[in-house]
Structure prediction request, 121 residues.
Amino acid sequence: MTAYNTLFKCIFLACFVLLTYLLLIEMAPAPHASLYKDKLQHIVAFGGVAFWGVWAFANYQRWVLVGLILFGGLMEVLQGLLTVTRQPSVFDWLADIVGILLAWWLAAILKRWWKTRSGRI
Prediction:
């Protein structure tokens, strides 16, 4: 699995930069009917970054998870401070956390499967 570390780190970095950009660009407020889509987008976006972060930094998983949770909170604060059309939301941050934890769980299952498949358990 270490042969893929550089690839995983590059994917993680690209996803992290893209997520940061998307969270801080100006956007028109979403209509009330599409609020569930916004939360789903937060879950998927932060889940994707967390998934690659857990694979890229396997020895530092807890730090990656804690860092992404704090990053999600920081992005919500910065949305309120740096953008005109976006508002910070505790519920968006909670959706970020759900995505991060789901990705961590999925990565753990896949790692266990991979080790079992390759005969390392």
